[in-house]
Amino acid sequence: MSKILYKPLDNRVLIKKIEIQEETRNGIILPMDTATHKYETDTIGTVEALGNSVNKTLNLRVGCKVKYAKHSQVELDEGVIIVKDSDIQAIIYEEEEK
After folding, report:
1. Cα 62 from Cα 16, distance rounded (Å)
2. Count of alpha carbons within 13 angstroms of residue 8, beta-carbon side
3. What is the 3-state secondary structure (H, E, C) of 15-64?
4. How far apart are CA 76 and CA 54, in angstroms?
5. Which pairing describes strands 29-30 and 12-17: parallel, antiparallel, or unpaired?
6. Of 17, 30, 32, 40, which residue has the fewest beta carbons closer than 10 angstroms?
7. Please, which residues have CB within 8 angstroms of residue 40's CB and are 6 or more apart in sequence?
8. What's the rounded Cα separation, in Å, for the pair 14 and 53?
9. Are 45 and 68 in contact (CB under 8 A)?
10. H or E element: which one contains 4?
11. pTM for the model
């Protein structure tokens, strides 16, 4: 069976959704529907590919973690979506703990 590859067109961005799991102090992993998260888990993902007309001032790169508008996504495959660059709300940087 062949793998399906997607190349976003124009100002579209291909994103792989990130599933964030929460773990209790005792090491029990909570299911997604009961977990409380810093972010809305269904609007966080990693950039997989960029269309050729994506706004350069956004400074998006493959591998960036982003937050996107919840109702703007088109699901292509399980966990793979496509959105317009204008629907990306933020690039997420994680601060290193000292």
Report:
1. 11
2. 26
3. EEECCCCEECCCCCEECCCCCCCCCCHHHEEEEEEECCCCCHHHCCCCCC
4. 19
5. unpaired
6. 40
7. 67, 70
8. 13
9. yes
10. none
11. 0.76
Whole-angstrom distance, CA of residue 45 vs CA of residue 69: 11
List the one residue out of 51, 69, 70 whose CA is nearest residue 60: 51
Nearest 10 degrees: Cα torsion 48, 52, 58, 63: 20
Question: pLDDT of 13-46, one tens digit each?
Answer: 999 998 766 677 777 776 655 444 444 556 899 9
The letter for the amino acid at 21 is Q
Can you read off the two tokens belonging to residue 42? 């269904």
Are 38 and 44 in contact by the 8 Å Cβ rule? The answer is no
Structure tokens at 93: 């940087």
3-state DSSP assignment of residue 97? coil
31's tokens: 């299911």
